[in-house]
């Protein structure tokens, strides 16, 4: 059988006891040899025992302290491991059991590799956080406009209590947002700088000086990163707006100068060569501020040159203004004369000419005023056109009426002579025209009244009211007609008396003489039917006016027919009566014939 193998601890204790026993026996042998008394021996043994106990106690305390330290290390390691798990946002470490067993040292040996790995993970995570946060701080400083920023990673403070991937993702999202904002700001800065370049080129300014004045970092020659802070963006925006306002002001100024040049060119009849020198100014009249982008198109030199040209033409304009005014005055008078309208007074025109000579009048307002007068005159002439056409017809009809009156008074109008047949045809046409005069006058009066009501002014024809002319014409025409009727009545009466006297003297018989005397002495009361009808015709002519003329003429014809049947014919008397009757019929062929 094999011998019993004691544990290492038991073997150490047995060896210690054996060694102590040998030493005690050797001490007893020494005491026996020396002859040490018993009390002294017991005292030494007691001391040895106490010293041994003290040594054991120290060893035990040291062992307890070592155990406690190991427990502390284990607890700290577990706490650190747990804290790392929590800070990293992980539940556990793959490959490590959640519950540990074995001695303290075994547990320590088990947790130490996991703890080391977690520490490495923490360090790596912290570096990630530091890098992300460093970028965030740097971009934030750029956005804030901080010219000096220490981008050292050691200055970044990382919250090691929260190193989870979720928190890291939040920082990364924030970093991405800042990157986007930075890019947007850079794009805005570049856009503003491009606008400054374009506007400066259009206005003829130095863009680099303007940009450097906003901030030196915006100038690419400086070689530093651009400042993209809110204040810089605001300054750039203000600079662009001020340049745009200056551009708008210059363009408006150029528009004014261009319009002035066009007016002056038109006024002065400037040659094409002189106009071509400022064609670029005229080209800007039809464009807006946003459409002007050509370099140097709105420089101060161009504006000053245009101003100098306008000033030069203004000095020449006064000499030709009088000529132009007289030309437009003639145009106005021509319009007024053509439409028989009232012409502006000569005294007013002379006053304007005096003002032109002294230079105490605004030429633009003067031209505008006379152009407005011409426009109003044209408009009024257009509104008078239909009335004036009828007035012209009325005037022509009056001329025909006067000619017809003169023709009717000509006793030789029926004679056989050269041109008599043409006069007869003209007389027929004139009678047709004259017959239309009443309707023409009535229409003219109605149109004139309507025109006056609409315009609220009197219609003047050569400074005379047209309605007054028409009414005076109607009145004079009526008076002429009445006078003609009275003359015709007298003529008819005298003819009848002469015919009856001739008739009675031509009959030798007593009965006829008695009949003639009775007719003459007894008046028209006991006369023949012919005489009674003539008497009635005369009365009607005197009382009924126009219509009685044609009625009296018909009675005259009828009476002459009856007389021709009852009395023997007389060639001379018959031909003379026929001529007179034709004259009366031709003269009173119309209700208003002269």
Mean pLDDT: 75
* Assembly status: single chain
Number of helices: 19
| Strands in their spatial order, largest beta sheet | 1-2
In helices, the fraction of residues equals over 70%
Poorly predicted runs are: 1-6, 508-594
Q: What is the overall silhouette? A: rod-shaped
Cα gyration radius (Å): 70 Å
Q: Note the main sheet.
A: 2 strands, antiparallel
Please give the alpha-carbon distance between the first and last residues: 187 Å
Give the amount of beta strand, in percent.
Answer: under 5%
Number of separate strands: 2
Q: Structural class from helices and strands?
A: mainly alpha
The sequence of SSEs as H and E is HHHHHHHHHHHHHHEEHHHHH
Subcellular location: Cytoplasm, Cytoskeleton
Biased composition (Polar residues): 502-520
Protein name: 65-kDa microtubule-associated protein 8
Region (Disordered): 500-526
What does this structure look like?
Residues 502-520 have a biased composition (Polar residues). This is 65-kDa microtubule-associated protein 8. It is found in: Cytoplasm, Cytoskeleton. The chain has 594 residues and is mainly α. The protein is 77% helix and 1% strand. The protein has 19 helices and two strands. It has helices at 8-34, 38-88, 104-144, 165-203, 207-214, 230-268, 272-276, 279-283, 300-338, 346-358, 363-383, 385-409, 420-435, 437-455, 466-505, 510-522, 529-544, 546-566, 571-587; strands at residues 460-461, 464-465. The protein has a two-stranded antiparallel ribbon. Helix 2 (38-88) runs parallel beside helix 3 and helix 9 (300-338) packs parallel to helix 11. The radius of gyration is 70 Å and the shape is rod-shaped.
């Amino acid at each position: 059988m094999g011998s019993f193998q004691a544990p290492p601890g038991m073997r150490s204790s047995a060896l210690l006891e054996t060694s102590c026993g040998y030493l005690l026996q050797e001490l007893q042998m020494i005491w026996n040899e020396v002859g040490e008394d018993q009390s002294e021996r017991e005292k030494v043994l007691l001391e040895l025992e106490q010293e041994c106990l003290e040594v054991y106690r120290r060893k035990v305390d040291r062992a307890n302290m070592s155990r406690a330290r190991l427990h502390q290390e284990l607890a700290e390691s577990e706490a650190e491991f747990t804290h790392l798990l929590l800070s990293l946002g992980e539940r556990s470490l793959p490959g490590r059991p959640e519950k540990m067993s074995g001695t303290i040292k075994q547990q320590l040996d088990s947790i130490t590799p996991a703890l080391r790995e977690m520490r490495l993970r923490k360090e790596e995570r912290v570096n990630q956080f530091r890098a992300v946060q460093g970028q965030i701080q740097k971009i934030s400083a750029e956005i804030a406009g901080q010219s000096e920023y220490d981008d050292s990673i050691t200055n970044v403070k990382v919250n090691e209590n929260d190193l989870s991937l979720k928190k890291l993702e939040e920082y990364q999202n924030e970093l991405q947002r800042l990157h986007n904002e930075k890019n947007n700001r850079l794009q805005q800065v570049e856009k503003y700088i491009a606008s400054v370049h374009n506007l400066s080129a259009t206005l003829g300014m130095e863009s680099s000086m303007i940009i450097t004045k906003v901030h030196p970092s915006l100038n690419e020659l400086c070689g530093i990163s651009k400042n993209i802070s809110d204040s810089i963006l605001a300054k750039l925006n203000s600079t662009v707006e001020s340049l745009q306002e200056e551009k708008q002001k210059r363009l408006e100024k150029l528009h004014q100068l261009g319009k002035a040049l066009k007016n002056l060119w038109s006024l002065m009849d400037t040659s094409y060569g002189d106009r071509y020198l400022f064609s670029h100014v005229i080209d800007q009249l039809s464009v807006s501020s946003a459409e002007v982008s050509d370099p140097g198109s709105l420089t101060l030199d161009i504006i000053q040159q245009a101003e100098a040209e306008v000033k030069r033409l203004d000095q020449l304009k006064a000499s030709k203004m009088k000529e132009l005014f007289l030309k437009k005055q003639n145009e106005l008078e021509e319009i007024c004369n053509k439409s028989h309208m009232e012409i502006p007074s000569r005294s007013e025109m002379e006053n304007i000419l005096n003002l032109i000579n002294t230079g105490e009048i605004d030429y633009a307002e003067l031209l505008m005023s006379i152009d407005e007068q011409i426009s109003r005159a044209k408009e009024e002439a257009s509104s008078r056109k239909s009335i004036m056409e009828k007035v012209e017809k009325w005037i022509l009809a009056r001329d025909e009426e006067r000619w017809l009156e003169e023709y009717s008074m000509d006793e030789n109008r029926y004679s056989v002579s050269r041109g008599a047949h043409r006069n007869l045809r003209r007389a027929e046409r004139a009678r047709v025209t004259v017959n239309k005069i009443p309707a023409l006058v009535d229409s003219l009066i109605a149109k004139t009244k309507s025109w006056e009501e609409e315009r609220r002014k009197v219609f003047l024809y050569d400074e005379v009211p047209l309605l007054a002319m028409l009414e005076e014409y109607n009145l004079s025409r009526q008076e002429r007609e009445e006078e003609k009727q009275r003359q015709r009545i007298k003529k008819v009466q005298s003819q009848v008396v002469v015919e009856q006297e001739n008739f009675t003297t031509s009959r030798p018989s007593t009965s006829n003489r008695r009949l003639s005397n009775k007719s003459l002495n007894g008046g028209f009361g006991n006369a023949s039917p012919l005489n009674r009808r003539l008497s009635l015709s005369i009365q009607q002519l005197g009382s009924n006016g126009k219509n009685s003329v044609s009625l009296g003429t018909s009675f005259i014809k009828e009476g002459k027919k009856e007389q021709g049947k009852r009395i023997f014919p007389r060639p001379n008397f018959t031909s003379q009566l026929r001529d007179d009757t034709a004259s009366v019929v031709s003269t009173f062929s119309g209700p208003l014939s002269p």
